[in-house]
Design a protein that fits this description.
Structural class: mainly alpha
Strand order of the largest sheet: 1-2
Strand content: under 5%
Order of helices and strands: HHEEHHHHHHHHHHHHHHHHHHHHHHHH
């Protein structure tokens, strides 16, 4: 093929990466578009769109027909009351000093200190006191053995909270602190079942487990069984609501700002609440929300001025959702610039994904992949289609804008590393496009070799670090290291979460789907394939948790962004295709986070 010859001459590496010998298991299809039934013998129902080019040749494009943007100009027209914002800012500062005094005073009692730190974290205000909390936890961890030995009568709830606080900050508190709640047979005592607060806290703590911690595996199974049973029997309405939410998504796997809003509503009904802390959490949530609304308004203005929606009508238009993802990575005010960079580059990933999956022909994509290896405007005219030229120009412009923002502080390397990850990403996109083009259904092992990289997990975290001054070159070297536990876990989590929720729709569009590859290689049903996926997801969370434990090769602030990205995958894909169909659940999350303030 002439196109392949051109690419081979220009970029040998690229050609090797996408053209390694394959032994087709099956080839069926038409016009370069293929799909597979569960027995891999017939083409699935698929309606591509046909158009005719200037040479009167039919071009078939497997359009995604994605649901339209659901927000319109909503965030560009939100009213902003500056006096209300200034009043809220002053109130936050006053309450912050009061809570800081409480935090300092709590150090006289280690357990009181731990419980207060836990409340600050759950209510979403711990970011105000990071240095104080770090200093206190460092001291508490050194004296942990003495503290627990001196208070052997601590109940399950207390031990579980201590465990959660330490593990959530990267301290490897041993899991054998829960042994005291087991009987002589090695099983959890039935007497703890009636301790509802203890059971809930143990359930939450068990999600910080790492490989080999069998007692936490048992704790998760034990608490899940009994908490589900309690919903039908004895749980109070207050506890029942918390249990339902926790069983759906434990705190550790939730997006921090969403978890904070949810916990504030629970805390408000807690008879032991601290009213100053509650007021602080509410004011801070609303204050942050107003800041984020302004940022999102500017992003929507850029999106509209760039005319991206009309330039790329085949793609998903998810600028609000991209900003939601950015807030999920970091909500703190100091990361405003980072959120803007992240949201824009996340939109670029979406455009690329939809171009390779839902519009470009294989021949067009070969040219485009070659151009992406260069990141040079001079090659744009060699692209075979106007829409690709527009896309290429947009990609370069957004990267150039990001580089301008960080170059003054000597961090241009952050954009260079991210460009390299984009180059790798499109190579994997092209490899998957080739499978479709050739009608090839790979084995699951072959699929994972490409699909883990095409998950875009690493490039997503890479671009999240661009706007973070804490992210030096060592952070990027750590991130791209294939032996890094977090690197591996992120790829697996992102790919498998996505596959479970998107594969059925993608199969209808003729794409190669991971669950089909798994079914073929292992001779199982789709249900069994999904169950196997879910087991691998849980194993990946254990790896992620282990990679977060100290000592760490990079600052904890860097690790938080990687873990928060994994949390976003759970929120976006655990129950539905959040980005493909945001109206199902993501719309509600966005409204809670970015539209509706908390009543004071």
């Amino acid at each position: 093929m002439a196109v392949q010859a051109t690419l081979l001459t220009a970029t040998p590496f690229l050609y090797t990466a996408i053209s390694r010998p394959m032994v087709p298991l099956l080839k069926i299809g038409w016009n370069g578009c293929f799909a597979y039934s569960t027995n891999s013998s017939r083409v699935a129902s698929f309606q591509p769109r046909s158009i005719t080019n200037s040479n009167h040749q039919e071009i078939v494009r497997p359009l995604g027909n994605f649901p339209p943007d659901i927000w319109g100009d909503h965030f560009m027209t939100l009213s902003f009351d500056n006096s209300e914002f200034e009043s809220c800012s002053r109130q936050v500062e006053v309450l912050k000093e009061m809570v800081k005094d409480m935090l300092v005073a709590s150090t006289d009692d280690p357990i009181e200190n731990m419980f207060l730190i836990n409340s600050l974290c759950r209510l979403g205000v711990s970011y105000h006191f990071e240095s104080e909390i770090e200093k206190q936890l460092s001291h508490l961890f050194i004296t942990l053995g003495e503290v627990i030995d001196n208070y052997k009568d601590y109940n399950l709830h207390t031990i579980a909270i201590i465990f959660q606080v330490f593990r959530s900050h990267g301290y490897k508190i041993p899991c054998d602190v829960f042994n005291k709640f087991k009987n002589g047979d090695g099983k959890f005592k039935e007497t703890v079942v009636s301790d509802m607060k203890g059971m809930i806290s143990l359930y939450e703590a068990s999600h910080f487990r790492i490989n080999g911690e069998l007692i936490l595996d048992e704790a998760l199974a034990f608490t899940t069984l009994h908490l589900e049973s309690s919903l039908a029997n004895q749980a109070s309405p207050h506890h029942a609501e918390y249990i339902v939410n926790a069983l759906c998504r434990p705190y550790h796997k939730g997006v921090p700002r969403l978890e904070a809003r949810q916990y504030i509503s629970f805390y408000e009904r807690d008879e032991s609440r601290n009213d100053v802390l509650l007021e602080f959490a509410k004011c801070d949530f609303n204050w942050i929300q107003m800041l984020l609304q302004q940022e999102l308004s500017h992003l929507c203005g850029w999106w509209k001025e760039s005319d991206i929606e009309s330039r790329f009508p085949y793609a998903r238009h998810r600028n609000v959702e991209a900003f939601f993802l950015a807030v999920g990575i970091y909500f703190e005010p100091c990361y405003a610039r980072a959120r803007n960079i992240y949201a824009k580059l996340t939109l670029i990933i979406g455009l690329l994904d939809d171009t390779y999956d839902a519009y470009g022909t294989y021949e067009e994509l070969q040219y485009f992949t070659d151009a992406m290896q260069r990141f040079d405007m001079s090659v744009m005219d060699k692209l075979p289609a106007d829409y690709l030229k527009l896309l290429y120009e947009t990609i370069l412009d957004v990267h150039d804008e990001a580089q301008q923002k960080v170059s003054e502080e000597g961090r241009s390397y952050s954009v260079s590393y991210t460009k390299n990850e984009f180059k790798k990403l499109v190579v994997t996109y092209l490899a998957q496009a080739r499978w479709v083009h050739e009608g090839y259904l790979p084995t699951f092992d072959e699929y994972l070799e490409i699909a883990l990289k095409s998950s875009a997990a690493i490039v997503s975290v890479s671009l999240a670090l661009i706007g973070m001054e804490e992210a030096d070159e060592n952070a990027y070297q750590w991130l791209i290291n294939n032996d890094n536990k977090i690197h591996k876990a992120l790829n697996i989590l992102t790919r498998l979460y996505d596959d479970i929720m998107t594969n059925e729709d993608e199969e209808k569009r003729g794409l190669v789907c991971g669950t089909n590859c798994y079914m073929k290689q292992y001779g199982v049903t789709r249900k069994e394939a999904i169950e196997a996926y879910q087991e691998r997801i849980e194993d990946a969370w254990k790896e992620l948790n282990e990679g977060y434990l100290r000592p760490t090769p990079v600052p904890i602030q860097i690790l938080k962004r990687a873990v928060n990205f994994a949390r976003l995958m759970d929120v976006a894909y655990k129950h539905d295709d959040g980005l493909g169909k945001p109206e199902i659940s993501l719309q509600d999350y966005i409204a809670k986070l970015l539209i509706h303030p908390l009543p004071l």
